C-alpha cells in the first residue's frame, strides 16, 4: 500500500487542490509460435498536484515521492495556476461537495514472471499439439494494476487498487482464397493473475471454441455492403454503448458541441433502451468489472443514468461541468497515470438487458447478419460511430448461414438506437479494453444482444 | 545519482552483478510544460518531470526486461534482480543479443530554452484567428507543449549513445456548429523547433479548418460505386503505417503471416511510389538518433520505384528471420512527391471521393479494410462537390498500392513525416 506522505500537507492548501500518489504496474509476456518475444515488467510511480484558481487549473507531477518533492510539486502546480489565471482566468468556482474518506479493500498480489511464462507456455503447448495446421499462434499474458492515494482539501480522500489480468490467444489460419484470416479471444478480468486464473487447462475449452470459429471464418464470405438488419451479440453491446453513445454524452464533448447538446430530455432511442454508466455496483448487488468509489477530484462515485426508456436523461461530468449544468457531480473525473490530470471518463457503461432470447431475435430476420466479435471503435461529434467486426454470420430466412470475414459497421447513434426493436434477456461485461482520449483508461462496458438496423461495410 | 551516465553505468553493473551475460539500459529524463484549451477556453497548465529506466538482461540466451521510473540505487538493484529472475524463467533463444561496440556518440537536436510567453501568445493568436476566420468552428481541444528530454543508451559492450532534444508540439481537435447542426470532428498534430510561424500556418491546419466548416451540410451517396479516391497526406500516412505493421514488421515476419514475407527486392507497389524513412533530415523534428536495440540510425529506402527494399526489423527480428536489420524504426516516413498538382488530379476525376480522415476497423492481415470516410468530399466532373456523411469505403491495401493513379506535386510535413496526396483506383464507395 502506498505510504501516506500526503496528509500532512492538506491543512496548508487553500484553493481546491488534489494531491495524488500513484503506482501503475504492468506485466507482459508474449509467445509468438513458441518464441518468447516479450517478457516485461514495468512500474511507473510518482506524485502530482492540481490546483484550481480563478476558473483554471495548474498541474505538476514528479517521479520522486518524498516530502521535499511533494512540496516542490505543490509549489509548481500553484505557480502554473497563478500564471494561467493571470492571463486567462474566468472567475468561475467549483461546487462544494461533502467530505469524507473511502478506502478500497485489497492487497497487491504480484506474481513472479515465471508464473506468467509457464502459464503461457502450457497454453501454447496445447495449441501447438492439437492444432498444427494453424498458420500462426500467439499467446499473450497482460496484467496491470493502478493504485492511488488521493488527498483533497474539499471532498473525499481515498485509497484505491484496481488490478486486471488477461490471457489473449490469437490464431491465424489460411482462408479458402489463399490469404490469411485472424481471430482472437480474451480470457480474464478484474483481479490479480492468481485470483483470476487457476490452471491453464481451464482455458482449453475456450481455445477449442476459438479454433472452431476461425475455421468457419476461413471458409467465410465477404459481407454485402449496405444498410442491413442485424443482431449484435452481447459481445458487441458494450462497445456500442461506449462508442456510439458514451463519448457523445461526456460533458466536455457536450460543451464542445456534440450532438447530445441539443437532445437532453428528448427521445433519442427506442423505449426499450436504458443505459447507465455504473460506478461500482450492479442493480443485482454484484460488483461491476472495474469499480470506482471516489474519482480523482475527490467526488464520491455514483451511477450516471444516461438514457432511460429511450430518453436522454443526463451527461457524465467532472466538478466544473457539473457546476456549469447545475447538476451533482457523480465521479467521472479520472486520471490514468500519476502524471496525468483527471479528465471526464466513462467507468462501466452498459445498456440494460431486455426480455427476448437471441434465438428469437435471429429467427425474426429474413436477410441480415449476426455479428459476434468486435475489435476497435471510434465515435464522432455528430453521433456517427463505427466499429470493427471480427466474426459474424449471415442470417437467411431466420437461420444462421455462412460465416463472414472482417468488416466494419457504422451508424448515427441517435438514428440507429431508434431502430432497436429487441434486446436479449442476458448481458455480457468486458473490461480488457483501453479507452483513448488524450490519456488511455481502463473501462468496463456491457449489454445484451441487440437487434437493429445498421450500415455494414463489405468488399 | 543525477547524471544519466552515472545511472546507466550503475544499472549495467547491477545487472552484471546479478548474473547477466549481456546487459543494456535506456535512461530517460524529461521535462514538459503544456498548455490546454478545452471548448475554446484555456483550462490547464501542466508541468511534468519524468525519469525512467528500461533494463534488459540476457542470461544463457534468455531475455528479461524491466522498466521503472525510480532511479535511486535501491530501486535499480531491485529492478536488476527482477530482470534476472524474469530472464531465468524465460525461453532460451539464440537470436537474443545486444548491439556490438560503437564509438561514444552525443547528439543534440532542436532547442533547449523554451519561450513560455511566446508559446502562450501563439496559442492566443490561434484562438483569435480561428474565431475570426472560422466563426462556426469550435476548438474542442488544443494542447501545446514544450518538451526537453535527454535519453541515453548504454550496454555491456561499451556502447553509449545519448540524444538531447527539445521541441514544441501543437495538437488541435475541432468541429463546426450552426444551430443544431454539427460537423464531424477532425484533428491536427505537428511538432516544431521554433515559434517563428503562427500555428495557423503550420502544415495543413488552415486547410482542415476550412474543410471543417464545409462539413455542416452533408450527403450520403445513393449508389455504391467502385472508383477513384484521393487520400490526404494524413490518411495516406495512416495507410502506410498499417501496411508496415501488417506486412513488414518484426512480429508478422517472425510468425510468417505477412503477405509480403517473400517480397523483399520485388515489386509490391506502382513504380511511382517511393517511401523512405528519414530521421537524419533537418526537416524532421525530435527524430530518433538510435534504435531501442542500440544502433545509431541512418536514413533508408523502404519502397523504391515500387520495389520493397527493407523490412522493419530489430536485431532480434533480423536474427530470427535471416533478413537484414532495418537502419531505423520507420517513424519518419517520407513519400516522394509526384509531378501533378492536386488541382489537376481532382480535375481528372469524373466521379470519386477525396478522403481527409478514415475511421475504420482494424484492417485484416491480408490488407482488406473497410470503414467510414470522414471529413470527405465527393468529386464530380473534375470538381470538389458536397461533403459526405455515412459513407463507407472498402478495399485492399496491397491492391491499392498497386493501383496508384497519381501522386501530388505538393508535399506537406507535420515535423515528423513528409506526405503528398495520393490518388487510387478501384476503391469501393457505398452510402447508407
Secondary-structure map with pairings?
The complex is a heterodimer of chains A (459) and B (432).
Chain A: E1 17-32, E2 35-53, E3 56-62, H1 67-88, E4 100-103, H2 113-130, E5 136-152, E6 156-174, E7 180-190, H3 193-196, H4 204-218, E8 226-232, H5 234-245, H6 251-255, E9 275-278, E10 304-308, E11 311-312, H7 319-325, E12 333-334, E13 343-344, E14 348-351, H8 358-363, E15 367-378, E16 384-396, E17 399-404, E18 407-412, H9 413-416, E19 422-423, E20 428-430, E21 434-437, E22 439-442, E23 444-447, E24 450-456
Parallel strand pairs in A: 4-6, 8-15, 14-23
Antiparallel strand pairs in A: 1-2, 1-5, 2-3, 5-6, 6-7, 8-24, 9-10, 9-14, 10-11, 12-13, 15-16, 16-17, 16-18, 18-24, 19-24, 20-23, 21-22
Chain B: H1 4-17, E1 22-38, E2 41-59, E3 62-68, H2 73-88, E4 105-110, H3 116-133, E5 137-155, E6 160-178, E7 181-182, E8 186-192, H4 205-213, E9 218-219, E10 225-231, H5 233-248, H6 250-254, E11 275-277, E12 300-304, E13 307-308, H7 315-321, E14 333-335, H8 342-347, E15 351-355, E16 357-360, E17 368-374, E18 377-380, E19 383-388, E20 392-396, H9 397-401, E21 404-413, E22 418-430
Parallel strand pairs in B: 4-6, 9-19, 10-15
Antiparallel strand pairs in B: 1-2, 1-5, 2-3, 5-6, 6-7, 6-8, 10-22, 11-12, 11-14, 12-13, 15-18, 16-17, 17-20, 18-19, 20-22, 21-22
Helix pairs in contact in B: 1-2
Give the C-alpha Rg of chain B: 24 Å
Backbone CA Rg of chain A: 24 Å
Number of spatially distinct domains of chain B = 2
Structural class of chain A: alpha+beta
Report the count of strand segments of chain B.
Answer: 22
Whole-Å distance between the termini of chain B?
Answer: 62 Å
Q: Let me know the number of strands of chain A.
A: 24
Largest sheet of chain A: 7 strands, mixed
Oligomer: heterodimer
Strand content of chain A: 35-45%
Helix content of chain A: 10-25%
Give the count of helical stretches of chain A. Answer: 9
Gross morphology of chain B: globular
Structure class of chain B: alpha+beta
Mean pLDDT of chain B: 95
Q: Which regions of chain B contain 5 or more consecutive residues with pLDDT less than 50? A: none
pLDDT averaged over residues of chain A? 95
The tally of structural domains of chain A comes to 2
